[in-house]
Amino acid sequence: MSVDITQHSSKGLLFFLALSLTAALMNSSAPTPLYPFYQDHLRLNAVDLTFIFGAYGAGVLLALMTLARIAGHVKDQRFLLLAAIVLVLIGAWLCAACDSLWALCAARAISGLGAGIMTTAVNVTLVRFGPLDNGKLAATLATLAMIIGLALGPVLSGAALQLNLYPASLPFWLIMALVTVAALGVLMLWPRNAIQAHTRVRHEQASLREGLRGIGRPFHLCAWSVFFSWSFTACIFVIGPSAAEQQLGLSDRGIFGYSMAIYLLIAGASQLYCKRLDAARALRSGLVAQCAAFLLLLTAFSIHSLTLAALALVIGGYAYGAIFVGSARLINQLAPASCHAKLVAYFYMTIYLFNAVPIPLGLLVDSIGLAPSVLAALIFFLGLGAVLAVLATWVRLPHAHP
């Protein structure tokens, strides 16, 4: 693996790197309030919306699988950054111009490829050009960039919907402008005198199967807990706008976008807070909080209470952050050095399968209707969450403070 070493890191470069990631994640979440708009204008079924969502996830997953093999061998990260920027620009432009289901799916798949490459490239580059603090500043910048990006995307498209300002295209043109500014900033501030220091990395002898056998049950508990949490969030993003409109009386689609932004900001704040907690405690508290959120949502949809649903999303936002931070830290603690990279890559590949979960829910909505489908999904998620919470209590997890 090559490491770029500079005596004086550029604050401007770090800013534009973080801005690049923010813009890519804005492109990721911007379509959330637009799903009912697409459904009305393109005459789509509920399951069609899940294909649009799943196409993005497929692109991200493909990017992660590819980069898991080659990222460490790329000497100049600008190649990856430029590839990511081009893909994000193409994906956003296609989203702004699309007028059919399959065109939207292709656009979202390209956007997912760009976001996956951007996430990897920016994280690596922040570490290489950041201060010598064991990557703490890089991790903080990357976390904040992802939180802000995911939160601002729905705000942008939600505002366009409320103001009726070309909601299907204007958000993506603004994202393209932001990506271009970030790209120019990165290229202009890239250090010209960076010293390339090559370090030899030992070939990993342990196989993935041996690594999984070494960790045992805690690995699967962590991976499937995050998969469970992100699957529920994916269902909210795809089916949530219609459910809130029909069952909770939320007629303003822009407000749903703002709600999702608040949900993601709470999740981000939860991640920052839970870094201070013991990893196992963070995971367990997140699973319990997620079950509490399901109970509140079941009550909210039964009595058609928008207030209870909003409270459930607040609790669910904490759960999202706690489950992810606790699980990710436990994986890093438990993974042996001989196959750490393989296990981490497998961890993310496992949890990114969550993008396929809304598809069966969409089929269920088309078959039996929205209200019974939402009820069945919440009961299913509640039961699964309870099982995971019990397993998190039974499985022996390491207790190590940060």
Automatic annotation (TrEMBL):
Which Pfam families does the protein's record reference? MFS_1
Q: Which organism is it from?
A: Pseudomonas haemolytica
What are the transmembrane regions?
A: 12-29, 49-67, 79-103, 109-130, 137-160, 172-190, 221-243, 255-274, 286-303, 309-331, 343-364, 370-395
Where found, per UniProt? Answer: Cell membrane
Query: Which GO terms of the cellular component aspect does the record hold?
Result: plasma membrane
Q: What is this protein called?
A: MFS transporter
Sorted alphabetically, the keyword list is:
Cell membrane, Membrane, Transmembrane, Transmembrane helix, Transport
Q: Which InterPro entries match?
A: MFS, MFS_dom, MFS_trans_sf, MFS_Transporters
